[in-house]
Amino acid sequence: MMLGALCAGLAVTPATAQPLQVSYPGDATMDCPTIAAEASRMDLLVADANAQIAKAEGQARGANFGASVAVEGMLRTGLLGRMPGAGQIANQAANVARQRAEQVKAQAAADIQTAGTRKALLSGLYAGKACDAPPPALPEAPAAAGPTGS
């Protein structure tokens, strides 16, 4: 029963649409608000990747705990003596969970690095387009000559 729940948790994988890249062909044509929005999206991607890492670590810890409890229960009930391979199955399931967690963590770490590099590129574009510069001042009309006191 514990093993079934453990394996069911392993079947859930994060959906990945398109891999993140440092630059895209249309980056140079982006205007200032689009660059700012894309930089904000990179911040969200980093936060999401950090959440994936935390979730993967939690699942791996849960799998280890579940395997330990299962083996301890089988040992105390004598089931481990009657079915010697049962403990190995529980440990293998925990190992699979750890391996999956490591894969998720490695992918999330790569996404964090790519998002950070992309954000740096976007910051350069933002500065290069002078997005923070104040708008140019309008030329003042010459002051109208008023009547001079005679």
Describe this entry's structure for a reader.
It is built from four helices and no strands. The protein has 150 residues and is mainly alpha-helical. α2 packs antiparallel against α4. The protein has a domain of 98 residues.
The helix content, as a percent range, equals 55-70%
**SSE sequence, one letter per element:** HHHH
The tally of helices reads: 4
Largest sheet: none
Based on DSSP secondary structure assignment, what is the total number of beta strands? 0
Distance between the terminal alpha carbons, to the nearest Å?
Answer: 107 Å
Shape: rod-shaped
**Percent of residues in beta strands:** under 5%
> SS-based structural class?
mainly alpha
Overall pLDDT level: 79
Unreliable residue runs: 1-16
Radius of gyration (CA) equals 29 Å
Keywords: Signal
Signal peptide: 1-17
Give the key terms:
disordered N terminus; 150 residues; mainly alpha; 4 helices
